[in-house]
Amino acid sequence: MMNFERSSGILLHPTSLPGPFGSGDLGASSYHFVDWLIIAGQRLWQMLPLGPVGMGDSPYMCLSAFAGEPMLIDLKELSDRGWLAQSELEKAPTFNKYKVHFGDCKTFRMNLLRTAAHNFFVKNGKTEFEEFTSFCKKQKSWLEDYALFMALIQKYHGAEWSTWDPDLVKRVPAAMKKIRIELEEEVRFWEFTQWCFFRQWFALKKYANERGVKIVGDIPIFIAYQSADVWANPHLFHLDKQMKPKVVAGVPPDYFSVTGQRWGNPLYDWKAMHEEKYAWFIERIRTTLELVDIVRIDHFRGFAGYWEIPATEATAVKGQWVKGPGAKLFDAIEKKLGKMPIIAEDLGEITPDVVELRDRYNFPGMRILQFAFAADTKNNFLPHNYTSNTVVYSGTHDNDTTIGWFQSATEREREFVKRYVGTPGDEIHWDLIRVAAQSVAVMAVFPFQDILGLGTEARMNMPGHALGNWAWRFTWEQVQSWHAQKIYEIAALTNRTADDRLSLPAYPTGKAQP
């Protein structure tokens, strides 16, 4: 079992950070946010998956399970290295400060990344080129396929890989060799973006770790069909002769949707995975744990049993439960990587086999306070029912903000939560933050929207809705000094911060006077 420290932290994806180029990135605002976490007594920075986003701009539908999102690359750092002129950065259009407009943002950023790559390969110094070459060699196992996949996406104007030239779909060696030569320059561009991302990411992680802040990452259980991974490893997925998914992932009707959620990810062929000793999945976990300190596995229940939907179905209603790999997978991972700092996202329809699998490895599960007040006092999401091996959230990226949730809750829920926290609910976001921090849960995590007291307009994701998600941003003008002071005091009073800035009244000694 991993010995997690009692702590608290903030859920904030880097794209939500302020910055002049349309979205947050790994530049100055990321470092400023780490500094804010330290002032606020927070020891965890939780993020969504960091991979290159695909369909619907979702970080849960990445083009690679191993690569980083090029939009997160700090353009200022590339300018400082001489690969971009300052004048090119100054030509940035006026982007929305509160929303990421992915299309415009990606166009601007990718154009500058191409300019930077051109200048790097023309002007690079010997040391920098050696660093680039060394990176490519070290990451070859996934980088070659990813860079070629992205080059082919450009060549085929974004078309699904199953529609490409049949010899490339089937990865015929002669065709693969020929296309690598044809697209060599484009392939090198995508390798360059990954080198930049990884360089900048590890610098940021080092800065955070040296100051006592751990990064909590996120692995979606499933991956996108339109990804380098499925194209490079089709035998590990349930695909038909046309290389299309036979069955896809999702969840049955639930709290979020009456027709369930049809995610559309191809499902793993766990038998084929087992025959290869789960090598691909182990490498995925290993690579992620190089990038982050703790990893949250999204939809953990799918390892015990998952909802299989025929690819021909438009909704998730006509699916069925299928047994997952269970302990075989995690035994194989543990044998290779040792004890793993994993958080199990055990939400949804949880059956005894899910609990058994989670507890077998002592992975902490998740509790969401917004789910706590719809039933009675036996509800497992209520803090008095927690075990310490738990991570509590006021809400996650899939929930409304706490203020938005409270405003749309039933009258019964509102009355229950007000009586439970002992306030009129005028600052319900702080009420839930405080109750979460006071619980026995080893970790407590709060969306930054709740720290800022924002409403539904700041919601990150609406499950089941394909468009309009993931776009929320904030500005530093919204962040007041008292925000950090207030969350610091809550963390300090509940033993979730490592420093001792909080001044408590002296503890009385001796006998009380009559």
Q: Which descriptors apply to this entry?
A:
single chain; 514 residues; alpha/beta; eight-stranded parallel β-sheet; 12 strands
What does this structure look like?
The protein is of the alpha/beta class. The chain is built from 19 helices and 12 strands. The strands form 2 sheets. An 8-stranded parallel beta sheet has the order 9-6-3-2-1-12-11-10. Strands 5-4-7-8 form a 4-stranded antiparallel beta sheet, with no helix packed on it. Helix 5 crosses helix 6, helix 6 packs across helix 9 and helix 17 runs parallel beside helix 19. The longest helix is centred in the middle third of the chain and has 27 residues. The chain is globular and about 80 Å long.
Radius of gyration: 24 Å
So what's the overall shape?
globular
Share in helix: 40-55%
Largest sheet, spatial ordering of strands: 9-6-3-2-1-12-11-10
- In whole angstroms, how far apart are the ends? 50 Å
- Beta-strand residue fraction: 5-15%
Mean pLDDT: 95
How many strands? 12
Biggest sheet layout: 8 strands, parallel
Q: Can you count the helices?
A: 19
Instruction: Indicate the low-confidence ranges by residue numbers.
Output: none
Structural category:
alpha/beta
